[in-house]
Specification:
Layout lengths: L1 H12 L3 H16 L43 H10 L3 E4 L6 H14 L36 E2 L7 H7 L5 E6 L2 H12 L4 H10 L6 H7 L1 H4 L13 H5 L11 H11 L2 E4 L3 H12 L3 H4 L6 E2 L9 H10 L1 H21 L1 H22 E6 L18 E6 L5 H11 L2 H13 L10
Parallel strand pairs: 1-2, 1-3, 3-4
Antiparallel strand pairs: 5-7, 6-7
Subcellular location: Golgi apparatus membrane
Keywords: Glycoprotein, Golgi apparatus, Membrane, Signal-anchor, Transferase, Transmembrane, Transmembrane helix
Pfam family, one: Gal-3-0_sulfotr
């Protein structure tokens, strides 16, 4: 008992130099902008032992084609052999971080490998913003012995996710600069998040942008008891299952558990580097990792923030800033383990391959939604215009299938894979 107490005391009082520097730097930055309304210090301690990256080999078939590609049969033997070469994956799809692009990579990989997806039992999300529960997942399809991929929106609950996914599942997610994330979240969800919608109504009488009005006095608009306000403060922390309302004593331990659980936390500002590390983790090739940026807003839907507004965003989302800064440091530690020269070389190779694919596949970028056919038109919100891509003409069936899948919006691809797996359309959400 005394040994256990001693070890616990040592863990709690062993200050990580890395996180101490991050916390102090953040505090000084916030004080300098006079935006920080608290003198609380943040003491985050990562776990001492970091899980080593697991690298697995995987063989690949030729690129997919619309209807002529021969899919592997769903036999238990074939799936068992494939799982030994390619581990199951849990991708925590965070909001407005570039996660739709990563999801598309996993959708394509899973479809080609005839993976079994853990889909929400209703619509496209796992009963968001509720914490994930195993009961939110649709049934295991006939002929499958386990789920291989989980990559739909959820609010994380590690214990519940582990009830669904195999023990050897690889956990990955994506974080983005908190200022850019919050601006994007606000612009995309202005009409659906209650705190944002209220600020938008107030802005009509003040002659200012809704975001500016909200940031002037966010506490006026934000009701923490309103379930729909989860994304209105520290949205990445909320998605990660952390307490997003304020710092509390459980944060260091919760953060340590996330660091231990996630094999890779990708960083949007270093997206290509992140994909190279992902490829090494899962045994993927450049053709698997080539991408088009999806769910991107038109330029006129993006709000440019001056230094004052940036400071207000950072102050309101201080926990997201700590979360992001922490995992940026962890990311570069993993990059160093991989080898910086090797990483740089592979990033250049990935960029070159991706550019070749884009030239082959895309005839027009940033295409307004009205000019896109239904199959390639992203879902639109009331306050943001989401642009898409126009596919090149004169492609072979095989290339056309590959290219269309790369630019296929989330909802269309999700619906396609769900029908392919279950032979029926998704269930609608229950009426309120």
């Amino acid at each position: 008992m005394f040994v256990e107490m001693g070890l616990r005391w040592l863990w709690r009082h062993r200050v990580s130099a890395l996180l101490l520097v991050l916390a102090l730097a953040l505090l000084l930055s916030l004080l300098a902008t006079r935006s920080l309304h608290t003198n609380r210090t943040y003491d985050l301690r990562p776990t001492a032992d970091r899980r080593n990256q697991r690298r697995v080999a995987e063989k690949h078939t030729s690129p997919l084609t619309p209807n002529t590609h021969h899919q592997p049969k769903h036999t238990p033997t074939a799936r068992a052999e494939r799982r030994r070469a390619h581990p199951p994956v849990v991708f925590l799809k965070t909001h407005r971080t570039g996660s739709s692009t990563v999801q598309n990579i996993l959708f394509r990989l899973g479809e080609r490998e005839s993976a079994t997806f853990a889909f929400p039992s209703r619509t496209f999300q796992f009963n968001y913003p509720d914490r994930f529960r195993a009961t939110f997942v649709d049934e295991l399809p006939e002929g499958s012995s386990q789920f291989d991929l989980l990559c739909s929106h959820m609010r994380l609950d590690l214990r519940e996710v582990r009830k669904v996914m195999p023990q050897n599942a690889v956990f990955i997610t994506l974080l983005r600069d908190p200022i850019k994330t919050f601006e994007s979240v606000f612009g995309y969800y202005t009409s659906t998040v209650p705190a944002f919608f209220t600020a938008r109504r107030a802005a009509t009488n003040e002659g200012k942008s809704a975001l500016s009005v909200f940031l002037d006095s966010p506490e006026i608009f934000w009701d923490p008891k309103e379930p729909g306000n989860g994304l209105a403060k520290n949205p990445m922390s909320f998605d990660m299952g952390l307490n997003n309302q304020k710092w509390n004593g459980s944060w260091p331990e919760d953060l340590a558990q996330l660091e231990e659980a996630f094999h890779l936390v990708m960083i949007a500002e270093h997206f290509d580097e992140s994909l190279v590390l992902l490829g090494a983790l899962l045994g993927l090739k450049h053709e698997d990792l080539a991408y088009l940026r999806l769910n991107v807003r038109a330029g006129n839907s993006v709000t440019e923030l001056d230094e004052n507004m940036q400071a207000k965003v950072r102050s309101w989302n201080v926990l997201d800033t700590l979360l992001y800064d922490f995992f940026v440091q962890v990311f570069w530690e993993k990059a160093a383990q991989f080898g910086m020269e090797r990483l740089k070389a592979e990033v250049e190779q990935l960029k070159a391959f991706t550019e070749d694919v884009r030239r082959k596949c895309v005839s027009r970028t940033e295409v307004p939604p009205k000019e896109l056919e239904d199959l390639l038109r992203p879902w639109q919100t009331e306050t943001a215009t989401i642009v898409g891509y126009e596919v090149q003409g004169n492609l072979s069936l095989q290339d056309q299938g590959f290219c269309i899948r790369m630019m296929l919006p989330e909802l269309q691809y999700h619906s396609h894979l769900y029908f392919k797996q279950y032979g029926r359309d998704m269930r609608a959400a229950p009426a309120d």
